[in-house]
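Sanity check

After download, print the first record. It should look like this:
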Amino acid sequence: MSERAADSRTRILDAAEALFADRGYEASSTARIAGRANVPKGLVFHYFPQKIDVLVALVDERTFVEELPDGPDAPGALVEAVPGDPAGTLSRLARRLPLHASPAMRRILFREADTHKSVRERLGRLNSEVFLRARRALELAHPGARGDQARLEAAAATFTAVLIYQENLAGLTGQHIDPDAVADLIARALGA
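Expected structure tokens:
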């Protein structure tokens, strides 16, 4: 792809990202995307034969979920756990949330997950990955709780929900949840 073509395609995706985040997928026509990108409408269809292809490309190219590697060294990989410090371990995990996406892309993920399978699948992978990390972090940081998998899983699921949905909640209500305070609350509930 030439530099000029790549620039046009990027401008189309930039325009779609802004419009989908602001107005939603359904309320953003290809004509509006083309106008905002300052390209002919036909060029949108050249790169993306259907409007849904624009959304799929955005989700695939502009959200990245960094997954934990499998293998014998995996339990500690990408998780900075400190034995005896589950609150600090969860706080570090919160700062290293494995979702790489702009705030606009995060809004798109949550807005479009109900109606678009590819978006729902990406959000599901994110949720699974954060849950896996939180559970591994808690197992490493609070080794005495390993026999109580149900409590660790509930704690990991709670922390995952806070991390993933806090930005969405802030956008809807203006309230911000402090992940460090939630990490401390979870650690206390686990008896750490």
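If your output differs, re-run the checksum step. Summary of this record's structure: The chain is about 65% helix and 0% strand.
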